[in-house]
């Protein structure tokens, strides 16, 4: 099972893939719904992945705020105390997610760096635990492979 489950609207798949690549470059295992395999029922697979993940990253956008799937996944993550969220446009977060810290990555297209990405990384690290992120951690868009999260201290 993955360290991080990513929930997003399909219109923001580019941003989800970039976030996943940056997290994987740090050594996290990541699950996106494009990892679904046939013929398994997707509702069961999604629930299983979300329940077992240590952190759930929700990428909010106008489309995500209207998506029943994203809303459900975000709510399950919130109830499980594993929600990390970011917003990529000026969408007002739906209730009750507007009561939870959310990194503002407004304008991020999935390419290049964003100054608030470290906030997202800190949230994920706090939930996954056991590792220290490099000060020069991979950035969004083109994460260098040489950076990895440190192994847990014994």
Give a quick summary of the entry.
Helix 1 links the parallel strand 1 (4-8) and strand 2. It is built from five helices and five strands. The protein is an alpha/beta fold.
Shape: globular
Number of domains: 1
Name of the CATH homologous superfamily:
Toll/interleukin-1 receptor homology (TIR) domain
Strand order of the largest sheet: 2-1-3-4-5
**Most strands sheet:** 5 strands, parallel
What is the level-2 CATH architecture name?
Answer: 3-Layer(aba) Sandwich
Alpha-carbon distance between the termini?
23 Å
Strand fraction band? 5-15%
Q: Which fold does the CATH topology refer to?
A: Rossmann fold
CATH class: Alpha Beta
What does this structure look like?
- The protein is α/β, with parallel strands linked by helices.
- It is built from five helices and five strands.
- It has a five-stranded parallel β-sheet.
- Strand 1, helix 1 and strand 2 form a beta-alpha-beta unit.
- The radius of gyration is 15 Å and the shape is globular.
- The C terminus is likely disordered.
């Amino acid at each position: 099972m993955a360290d991080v489950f990513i929930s997003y609207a399909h219109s923001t798949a580019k941003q989800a893939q970039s976030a996943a690549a940056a997290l994987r470059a740090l050594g996290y295992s990541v699950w996106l719904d494009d990892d679904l395999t046939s013929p398994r029922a997707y509702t069961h697979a999604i629930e299983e992945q979300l329940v077992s993940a240590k952190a759930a990253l929700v990428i909010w956008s106008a489309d995500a705020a209207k998506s029943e799937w994203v809303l459900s996944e975000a709510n399950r993550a919130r109830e499980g105390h594993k929600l990390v969220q970011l917003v990529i446009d000026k969408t007002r977060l739906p209730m009750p997610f507007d009561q939870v810290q959310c990194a503002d990555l407004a304008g991020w297209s999935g390419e290049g760096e964003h100054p608030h990405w470290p906030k997202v990384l800190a949230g994920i690290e706090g939930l996954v635990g056991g590792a220290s992120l490099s000060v020069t951690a991979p950035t969004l868009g083109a994460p260098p492979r040489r950076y990895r999260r440190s192994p847990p201290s014994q």
